[in-house]
Amino acid sequence: MLSQPVLIVIFQYVIQALLALVIMLILRKFYKQYQNNFFKFWSLSWLALFITMLASSTALTNAFYLPLEHPFRLFISFLSVYSSFLQMAWLYAGTREISRTSKVSQNYMRIYMLASIPVCAVLVMIYYQDPSAGDLRIFYRIGIKSLLAGGIFIACALMLLKISKAGIGIRFIIFSFIAYGLLQLNYFIVTLCEINGINYGAKLPFFMGAFDLFLQSLMGLGMIISVLEIEQLSLKKANTELDTFLYRSSHDLRSPLTTISGIVEAIRHADDEKKVAEFLSAIEERVQQADNVIRDIITLRKAQKADLIITKIDLVEEIYKEYNFLLDPNDVQPKLAIDSELVTIHTDSARLHTVLTNIIGNAIKYHNRDHNTEINIKIQTTEKGVELKISDNGAGIDEKHLPKIFDMFYRATKTSTGTGLGLYLVKDALDHMGGSIEVFSQKGKGTTFYIYLPDLIQNQ
Q1: Helices (H), 306-370
Q2: Most buried of 2, 95, 111, 436 (most Cβ within 10 A)?
């Protein structure tokens, strides 16, 4: 019959397992709804914690009923240690995603998972046949993983501190990560003191339950609150963009119509055929302007509603095709140079078209008339996609406008004939594809865009 203190510890483990299962299911639901990778990784970390706690409670029970060398007892101990290693890996990956530090390579994750198997096996097998080495077994099975967990949780908290405008959910997570990390380091110190015969003054069974459960509850609460805060920010952004969209689109459509109305009135009083022809040309320009606004609005709506359609594309061929389509035979003929001959990528062709059309189109449209126009494109393949560097020697963008050029309806110059939606469409398309874009520019010297395009097959 198990003693009361042992039953209390087992009960605490089971409660922690059930809590982890509930939070895992909630985060998994959020992932299916919002498709944010950090929800997936965090849900997997809670699943690993669920397995760890169940395995730990079983291992503690086995200690009283099975011999040290029993295969089932060794397997459960291994499962407990290995699942805790996985929990830390997935927690770290999710935290890097949400903090925008960088993405964790899937290859590195696989290497970590495979390398952890022999490491955990060694930690479990050390002193497994020595009945007198109980403290040493605890040190290798609990102390070492507690040292690693302590470092990972504190590192994750430091990453989250970099998030600007962090809400209460992220603050809960940061606090609980730091406290939980320190608690794990405390476990390591306790086990280290035990094997060296040092009186640390902290009884391990007391700490291995109540405070753990409290901090895990706080973590889960913080993660759930952060989901609501992220959704609230998304809704706020959507409302702001909707207000801007309604105001600017109605203005941009009404403006050419008002102009046309005035020109029509002028035509009624004109008796010079040449003057009438000029008026008709002006009407044609205003109609084209209104048509451009309507076309960009339709493109935006389609892009926001359409699912990703992944196809294999020769990126260099696609760039040349867009470039040739955009050339105006009556205007400047810019020189295009691409430093690669063949690069294939699996991506959404419609959204890629939006990106290339607007970036290359702007380089052609806003060329510097003082010298020959040049567009240079460098393509570098990465493990998960490609990076594009698109540079031109055109008119450039004033530095004060750079932070806003991806905003809806924003025009960097008063002389711009565009709708102000082009670069917004580029950013929206890349966001849907999981890509990114940065811009550097100097007025009168040209502009450089750095674009990351993920391979959508490799990133599935």
Answers
A1: 315-326, 349-365
A2: 95
Q: Alpha-carbon torsion 295, 296, 302, 308, what sign? A: positive
Q: How far is CA 92 from CA 89, 101, 285, 341, in A?
A: 5, 11, 55, 38
- Beta strand 374-381 with 335-338 is parallel
Cα distances (angstroms) measured from residue 355 to each of 249, 349, 358, 425, 449? 21, 10, 6, 8, 11
Strands 344-348 and 335-338: unpaired
Global pTM exceeds 0.85: no
Integer Cα distance of 42 and 48 in angstroms: 10
Name the DSSP class of 103. P
CA torsion 288→292→294→300, rounded to 10°? 170
3-state secondary structure of 421: coil
State the Cα angle at 242 between 238 and 243, rounded to 5°: 120
Q: What is the pLDDT of residues 176-234, one digit of tens each?
A: 999 989 988 988 888 888 888 887 765 544 445 677 888 888 888 888 888 777 777 76
